[in-house]
Amino acid sequence: MLRPMNAPAVSVASARTRLALSAFVLLFVELALIRWLGANIIYLAYFSNFVLVGSFLGIGLGFLWASRSERSLFPWAAVALSAFVAMVRLFDINIEVGGSNLIFFADQRPVGPPRWIMLPIVFAAVALCVAAIADGVARNFRRLAPLDAYRWDLVGSILGVVGFSALAFLGSPPVVWGAIVGSLLLGLAWNHGVSARRWGAASLLLLVAVLGVESFGGSQAWSPYYALSWDEHDEGGIVMRINDVATWDQHPKHEAAMYDFVYDFRTAEEVGDVLIIGAGSGNDVSVALGHGAERVDAVEIDPVILDLARTHHPGQPYADDRVNVHIDDGRAFLERTDRQWDLILLALPDSLTVVLGQGSIRLESYLFTQEAIAAYRDHLVPGGVFGMYNFMREGWLVDRYAATLADAFGEAPCVVDPQANLLTVLAVSDDPGALRCHGDDRWLASADGPEPVSDDRPFPYLRTPHVPRFYLMAIALVLGASVFAVRAAAGPMRGLWRQADVFFMGLAFLLLETKNVVGFALLFGTTWFVNALVFVSVLVSVLAAVEVSRRVRVRRPEWLYAVLAAALALNWIVPTEWLLTLAPGARLVVAGGVAFLPIFAANLIFADRFRDEDESTVAFGANVLGAVVGGLLEYSALLTGYRSLLVIVAVAYALALLTGRRYLRPA
Questions:
Q1: Which residues of 16-36 are buried (b: 16+ CB within 10 A; e: fewer)?
Q2: d(Cα 531, Cα 357) in Å, to the nearest integer?
Q3: In the 8-state DSSP scheme, what is residue 98?
Q4: H or E element in which residue 298 lies
Q5: For residue range 443-481, what is the model confidence (pLDDT) as tens digits?
Q6: What are phi and psi of 387, to 5 degrees?
Q7: What are phi and psi of 252, to 5 degrees?
Q8: Distance CA 310, CA 314 (A)
Q9: R_g (Cα) of the chain, nearest Å
Q10: What are 414's strand-pairing partners?
Q11: What angle do CA 252, 254, 256 make, to 5 degrees?
């Protein structure tokens, strides 16, 4: 491995340490940008995949630049990051989320710039900031043998995910994130000269000062999912803003008439046991207690929101002995219990964000599928009632939910406000005598109503299966900008074309990771903990493959492709609905084995290919650029569902085999 003439000589141990630390910073910044930008650019939380893909492009650009230029970008990483953060805070930016065929829950603030323009701008800004950090990773990467470098890059990445997840759990504010990142960037760039140290120190102070503005104050907090702020009522209770969007308002029982509709439809005099999914504000819990519920199971995914609601609600419903609180994903909670209830309510479960790093699935998406509705039905006592309500925005969404309920319960639901002009309420039971609704209160199927959604295509807010035009326009701009940026960073493309096989490996691996993230979100919940656990598990699986490859040479490398093909076939064959029937422990073992077998096999292939690579930074950069394309192809799931991603994965690995046959040398 050749070292540039002006690069400082460092020991192997020092290079490993610096590589692990810089990889830690890289992953930490990637996750922090997803969280922080989603809170400060209004509605960007709905499109966090563009931040993730922008990070991948930045990593690829940083590695390609380091492979051809002795001028390091890394000393300017703190400057670029601080300037970007300051610009976002200086300008009040929001993403336009209008439209009737794809619903976003939004307030009435003025419409921002077109989203197909704003999303590529955010994508490019993220890529530039990450590229400067990745340049530093790459310069340490190339000082080591390829597999040794990949190993320590993975160690740092795992620590970055674990570190940021721990801070998210502790509710640490952004100023803490900025201080950690800025200090590490300054320390790692210390040997780059006096000018770099001065600019780095000034940037660290700017970063901490800017982030400190939003980190301190009596009426704001950071949860594992959101930035929270609130205003207090004089008579008690608070108005909650999530990512600066007004979301819910606490009020006493006598002012909560909007929550009474489901109870008014019921014919039974006794309420019995109640399950509330999306308990949040505590209003629904207060109303259930006011109607005489014997037991209330309140499920809320966000622990900080629950603590605030518990503290501020004027009726103090969470202090009642009849209330049992569960901090969990609603669907996952149902899958883990055999309890049945007299009444199950979906109480305004609009999350305003997506599962971390995914472009399309929101935290609540799996609550509205055909399989979820069947689960609600199965957890009701005979004659029990299921109810749901929200400000649904469009009449077609009401028709979708009503049709799903009718299919599952065999009865048309009662409905209030079927045109979704204000608050829409749906109530249903498999016992016709359990509800009193007739005439205008009974839902009538429409000829052009949208189909129910399934666990494989959990997109209730998308009217028909398609990729919306603004996504296509944004993706086209992103791809165009990526091609231009790669040409500028890599110079002549001849060397990059030789890495076509690792490019396809990166594309396939990103989609494989996406399939696992959404699969585990369904099997175990869309909580931040499950999401972080999947990311760490993926990286640990990759590290395990690297460790095996460092010790064992496969005699016939093409056999690994056969193992991978079998693993992908197994993922295609094993149905998710069967996994959901398993006990939680067995489900974890079986689902983990099925899901991570292809990841392990795929990375044995990559590690075997990467072992003797002379241009390790170029190959690694090409691999990450493949992940950029894979991240954009994820939107095809809007059209075909997530299971179909396995077909794209198989095709991509077949292309990797064809374009990389010259590297398949017998050991």
A1: bebbbbbbbbbbbbbbbbbbb
A2: 9
A3: -
A4: strand 295-300
A5: 888 878 899 999 999 999 999 999 999 999 999 999 999
A6: -135, 150
A7: -65, 165
A8: 9
A9: 26
A10: 427, 442
A11: 75
